[in-house]
Amino acid sequence: MTKRRCDWCKGNHLYENYHDIVWGVPVFEDNILFESLTLEIFQSGLSWITILKKREGFIKAFDSFDIYKIASYDIKKEKELIANTSIIRNNLKIKATINNAKAIIKIQEEHNSFSKYIWNYVNNDPIINKFKSLNEVPNNTPLAKKICIDLKKKGFKFIGPTIIYSFMQAIGMTNDHLIYCFCHPMQLIKKVNRRPLH
Fold this sequence. Notes:
The chain is an all-alpha fold and 198 residues long.
């Protein structure tokens, strides 16, 4: 039986794989959260498929998104990154990534982890939406705006409410799989209810 997916990912293997395995799945590990936020920043002004095609390049170039390593990058490393064709060569976004790593370290010192800090906005409980079509899915929300403002106060660069909302979707803080999608919690509940009793 063919799986029903959200319309935005259909027809491309990279998109479908990302949709099925990554998008909307709760993430609590700081380096992965940092990777997700960084990729959303680099995606700004570009298509997401461009980022997916270069994702492995990003992981290698940015030391598997090791926050402490990135926070220690110097001018020489910045020049190496701007010359690296396996990533998006945007100097402002590269500088923002290094800056944001430093900002995350400060949050870790205050809250024990970036994960604990960011997930506190939803009391560690993902927001499950019930959208029926892509037209219903917002590109930002009041909560995304609040998080964006708070992160900017903590020194984060190159972020806006739309980037933050995409980040929330990617890390599972907000589940925006369409209601008919096999990844939506309601569909998973239906599968459990359909299991034979013996």
